[in-house]
Amino acid sequence: MRVLEDDLQRLIAANAPDTAEFRAVCSRCLRLFEKAKDQIIQDAAVQKDGSHVLSTPLRLDADERFTGRGVTIAFLDSGFYPHVDLTTPRNRIIGYRDLLKADGDLGSLFQPDVASWHGMMTSVVAAGNGSLSNGFYRGLAPESDVVLIKLARTGRITDQNILDGLEWVLANRDRHRIRVVNISAGGDDEQHYLTDPLSQAVERCTAAGITVVCAVGNAGHLPNHPVVPPASAPSAIAVGGLDDKNSMNRAKRGMYRSSYGPTVDGLQKPEVIAPSIWVPAPILPNTPTAQQASFLERLDKSADPELHQIVRDHPGVDAELDAALDRPIHSLRQIITLKLRQENVITKHYKYVDGTSFSAPIVSSLVAQMIEANP
Asked: What is the tens place of the pLDDT at every residue in 73-102?
């Protein structure tokens, strides 16, 4: 019987405690845990004290021979930001269109508003190279090109917004070699696909050789758990959610509160599920959220005698910590730990997010891998 290294045994025990002293771990799972151990050692600053969040390639045991090279993914969303995980060392944003402006206005890409975080996260979850984590929090298609299509400024995205985005993709698919469209947004109401213009646009995209991947929605807890366009279109790959409990132990996996069919046309949806919680995603730079994450990370890494002075030197960043200045060190440390968890902070650059909005880009990146492997 193979004798395992102590650190590998500890990793298996933390993620698969029911393996009866590792005798029930198959050879494939051992390779997966060994790969996880190597990545943890490679980036010890990200994986700290067992409080890590798994990367997407790691949790899915991704085939890293394929990176989406030569494949373009288009993203339809409420706003975007040119995150460094997409722009370095090579700028892979090969197209941008703001449908709210007649000329497209590339400048708005560099002027994020409150809606920019969502599209930034979806695009980086799929195609980011993890440059701010030494490659650890990368997507499955870190060498794919991306086209970003801004549908709305803030608030709800309508059926018409999404339809306009798909029409733009169809008109520009050859120019940008678009093979995949990710739509992490839903329309207004349930519709019959034969008479719904948005569903018909999805069908036209598919007929043109474009794979349309849609978030199915997060309404699984509602009595009617509706699936709306574009996810309800027959040829759309509707993506539901999986909760893997941030563990590589498959026995722990459960379902996320995804919407599900049948649709009004009797179609079963979603077609596939992917991780929809504990998904690593970038924090929008130069925002209060980024400032707070950087502050909390600094406090978490600081020695106990430094904590009170650091909080005093940064008034207004976090009101709760400001009010806790008279508390003892152990109490202040507890507040910092709790806030890191409440705010889902992984590092000052990344947090973990949830929703089928982030399941969909994982599937889009997997489709890009498949197209790279079989053009």
From this structure: 999 999 999 999 999 999 999 999 999 887
